[in-house]
Amino acid sequence: AVELLEDKNGDEESLLQTLEQQINWYGRPMCLFQGFWCPSFTLRSLLCFQKKFKPHDTDIVLASLPKAGTTWLKALLFSIVNRHRFPIDQSPLLTTNPHRLVFSFECVHFRHEDNPNLENMNHPRLFSTHLAHQVLPNSLTNSKSKIVYVHRNLLDRFISDRKFFLKTNQETDFEPLPVEEAFDMFCKGIHSFGPFWEHILGYWKASLENPDRVLFLKYEDVKRDPISSAVKIAEFVGMPFSEEEEKRGLIGEISELCSFEKMKNLEVNKSGIHRGSIENSSFFRKGEIGDWKNHLSPEMAERLQQIMDEKMSECGLML
Ligand code: A3P
């Protein structure tokens, strides 16, 4: 596909014509690429990422579906990995939104350049992606780099996604689909980076096959016990907390720094701009478990549960 792109002088329009396409519930085009609904604007970056990315064994990648807790896990990972560089009270997180500290492969690095120079980054390099495990470059999946995947209750994720895009797309002409129709598309797997069941299963199976390479986390578990989650993440990335760090309360300080209340109330996250008309504050809405109950019916929840039971039953994943 990259050759096709290159043959056509970078004209991804021509490649797009060969793919099935859909408009998502808030009016943005997506194309079905290697079995996943890829927002069309990320097609080129995905292809370049697949072809050109050169992993280092020390790389750490945060993977997630959008609205599953990406911002939070970026903050946690950044703090854990860089704790020897920055004391907590001088953390860049105090003045910088987590999305500016950990960039996405498809939305930033390979979006701005076909072959970005990633060699000058601090080590270990931290990246993020919403792409499914199945479409990651072989170079990455065959390397020793680590992947942290965060899963979130799909109903909460769906509502979080909806609220985010209703807030950040107010000025477009497209009338967003009503929640019932958007939910129907979601249940059919027609949503950005979906189908969700394939996305989750890809990382889940990889975590079973290579537990030292892929860590499968749940938003709800991190929320209930951020300290144990920070310990788990630090061990997984090969940077366990020392006894001395534990004694002086560093783990608690990191979890406090990255907590919803703290992050939401930092000036940079109250007033800063993420990109275009998207404000940093849009990434900090409620941060609760179970908010879906205020927006979706029990019947909708049951429909989704049935899909999950059907798709996940064989692999031992209880969600
Ligand atoms: P809600 O819309 O339910 O509040 P993402 O970072 O993947 O875009 O996900 C955004 C969701 O994570 C939003 O959920 C947001 O409030 C929540 N979130 C952001 N930072 C958080 C934090 N530090 N702790 C818990 N949840 C957080």
Automatic annotation (TrEMBL):
Coiled coil: none annotated. One of its GO terms (molecular function) is sulfotransferase activity. Keywords: Transferase. The keyword Transferase applies. Transmembrane segments: none annotated. It is an enzyme of class 2 (transferase). Residues 57-316 form the Sulfotransferase domain. Gene3D superfamilies: P-loop containing nucleotide triphosphate hydrolases. Its EC number is 2.8.2.-. Belongs to the sulfotransferase 1 family. This is Sulfotransferase.
